[in-house]
Amino acid sequence: MSAFHIRRPRLIDVAQRAGVSSATASLVLNNRVTGNVRIPPETQQRVLAAAEELGYVADPVAQSLARGRNGLLGVFTFEAIFPVTHRDFYYPFLVGIERAAEMLGFDLLLFTSTSVGDGRRRIYRDGRNRLRLADGAILLGVEESKTEVQALVQEGYPFVFVGRRELEGCEISYVAADYAAATAELIERMVNVGHLRIAYVGAEQFTESLLDRRRGYRDGLAASGCAVDDSLLCLCTGQRMVAPQLQTLLDQGVTAVVTESGPIAYSLLQACNELMLDIPGDLSVGLMGDPFGDMENVGHLSGFSIPREEMGAQAVHLLTRLLDTKTPATSQQASLPCKPVAGSTIAPPRTRP
After folding, report:
1. Are residues 194 and 296 both part of a single domain?
2. Beta carbons of 73 and 107 less than 8 angstroms apart
3. Assigned domain for 184 exists
4. Which residue range forms the structural domain that includes residue 171?
5. What is the rounded distance in angstroms from the CA atom of residue 76 to the CA atom of residue 93?
6. What is the DSSP letter of 104?
7. Which of 92, 234, 246, 350 is the most buried (most CB within 10 A)?
8. Are residues 57 and 80 in the same domain?
9. Based on the structure, what is the number of domains in the chain?
10. pLDDT tens digit string along 85-120?
11. Do both 164 and 190 map to the same domain?
């Protein structure tokens, strides 16, 4: 007979060989002999010996059902992750998630559904939470649906957001980067070399991570004894700064600029070229994050880097804590420090204001 036709030993075979019921064999083989369940040690040894003699291997699906877990962690992104620029941004997060999940013995399930109606991805379809295929999930992306996140909280589904998220009336589990402290430190570096008029150039968005950077900007100026001038907070359409906007800042005595993102930094460098400005001679520039995509020209910028791989790994650890706790609704939050990047774009101003 071909090996492909040999019947695998079943639980009932082990039970019969050991002379016990199938229920007793199941409890022993699934390591569920605890507290109220009393099975004599000699009986347990007889079951284990029978399983070894028969070459019995427990069905992983059945074991998962018995534990109420399937050993899967979901990863859901509210934006597509495979286009080049998004891939480069998300990649370190995913590396950290995979590394931690492997270390903790979990498999990953990546949810990549198409959008529903309005071009945005959805967790719920036909009123059902698709993430329930996994024991819990890690969420990424700035285009999240607050309504769906609220629904996850209400149904008690375990999840962790990568990035700080605030939802009125709810405590959300997340792992974030400490953008406020990193931005304040970047401002301090600029002040220490003589800059007193420092502009902030950001996007016309108001996500938690961007608000943290803006708070750090104000805190850094105040801690360094510099006046906070709201006219130096410049928000750009489409994450692009144009030469006239930069010239307006220069006319106000600005000698240094901090930029929210790689695309904004790239457009700022283009505006500097148009105005024939030398960096850092005429203008010091700092980047509050990492360049990514095809923006090699901003790789030398001073600023700080986001601990994206560590954030992904920490999100997995926080999620497993939620799974292990008896109260899944209990939030788990962590904030990781960013790493300063010296770069070559911060220098003393040629003429102090």
Report:
1. yes
2. yes
3. yes
4. 72-177+308-338
5. 12
6. H
7. 246
8. no
9. 3
10. 555 778 899 999 999 999 998 999 988 765 555 667
11. no
